[in-house]
Amino acid sequence: MNSRFIYFAARLIIAFFRVIPRAAGAAVIRLLAAVFYYLDARHRHIADVNLRIAFPEMPRRQRNVIARRSFQNAGMNLLEVSRLDTLTPENISDLVDYDKADGLDNYRAALSIGKGILYLTGHFSSWELLPTAHALHGYPLSFTTRPLDNARFEKYLRRVRESKGNTVIYKKDSARRILKELKAGRTSGVLMDHNVSPAEGIFADFFGIPAATSTGVALLALRTGAPVLPGYLTPRRGGRYTIKFLPPIEMIRTGDTAEDLRVNTQRLNDVLERIVRERPESWLWGHKRWKNRPPEDPRDIYGFSPRELDEFLRESALTGTRQMDSPLAKR
User: Is a pLDDT exceeding 50 seen at residue 41?
Assistant: First the structure.
């Protein structure tokens, strides 16, 4: 499809959601996301496989409810992106505030170490809103993302993302740029909850199943001494959100680089798993988190029949699979 048409169609949709009342926009998006959930058999299947891996004892009806709400929460990114331009330091607290127990105190504790901060986050709730809200509260940051295929829309989206004082870092050049930010005492965010390519990490356990996981955050933290601060957005009643920061994580150092990467990457995956378990409907279940598989068991989990998936999960439970250190690539 013509990229110019896609760009103008996307801008028209964003303009529509900017001008209609917020409550009406949220209702429309949730309705459309629910319809999309029922029509999109492929991503519905992916979500169900993921949920069966994460919660093997959960009834199918409950899995379906979580998956549908996950689609709806992800869809809310459209509403929030369409309204980023309207947010200001004066009105941001009406939409997003900080958790009283796990909030700014943990952020300040991490900042007080004096080596910058590596934010650990994932595709939770309206993840596009998180860095903008944090910046408008007075705490701008840089964050890593992949550029969109549509260059026109990417240019527009980057402008919107950076309009409140944040800096976008593209993944291709991210390590060098993040190191520069941390050395200057600044803060940088990384999404670490998706499948990665064989050149980017190790297999670290996620819900008891080895998942191809980036070692980038652990490597940067080990190299710079920067604390890792888990942060994420949670939806609340009335269309509002809360930013949560868990206590900062300092890296374990054994003197063995490979072991340090293995141990610390697993610790970070464990934190992400904890966040997913806290609010499972907030996570993006329609992504093939276990797409890349260890060489000793390269089977495609998403191609299994229901019976084959049951057998695979039983085998994993019986063997107590914890293949956290199977390398995706030799370093």
Answer: yes
